[in-house]
Amino acid sequence: MGDQHPTELIELPGDRRVQVIAYPDGSIEFRVSGQPYVLAEARLGDPDAHEAIVKLSPGRQGSAAAYNYVEELEKRARGQAAPARRTTPH
């Protein structure tokens, strides 16, 4: 996608962060820490404002991610290390 230009870093409760990155071609990337997240909503917003709306949820929409998220928070609260996660290349 060419050179990236970090434009905003937002600190969230629970040691989570959202980083918004803009690219010269006009595309935008969102990097969110504190996974797992699921895509809860993606739609066009107000046409006059030329906006798009993207909503991520920590799995609380009935997915299996909800259980994993709560379980992970409970382990962190007890001071237990999280199990190693398998990563896949992009």
Q: How would you describe this protein?
A:
The protein has 90 residues and is an alpha+beta fold. The protein is built from 1 helix and 5 strands, in the order E-E-E-E-E-H. The strands form 2 sheets. It has a 3-stranded antiparallel beta sheet, with no helix packed on it. Helices cover 17% and strands 37% of the residues. The radius of gyration is 16 Å and the shape is extended. It has one helix at residues 64-78; strands at residues 5-12, 16-22, 28-32, 38-44, 52-57.
Total E-strand runs: 5
The span between the termini is: 14 Å
What Rg, in angstroms, do the CA atoms define?
16 Å
- The outline comes out as extended
* Number of helices, counting only DSSP H or I runs of 4 residues or more: 1
Name the poorly predicted regions: 86-90
Measured by DSSP, the beta-strand proportion falls in 35-45%
Query: Averaged pLDDT, please?
Result: 76
Described by strand count, sense and barrel closure, the largest sheet is: 3 strands, antiparallel
The computed structural class is: alpha+beta
Adjacency order of strands in the biggest sheet: 1-2-3
Helix % is 10-25%
- H/E series: EEEEEH
Short description:
The chain is an alpha+beta fold and 90 residues long. 17% of the residues lie in helices and 37% in strands. It has one helix at residues 64-78; strands at residues 5-12, 16-22, 28-32, 38-44, 52-57.
Which short descriptors sum up this protein?
90 residues, alpha+beta, three-stranded antiparallel β-sheet, 1 helix, 5 strands, 37% strand
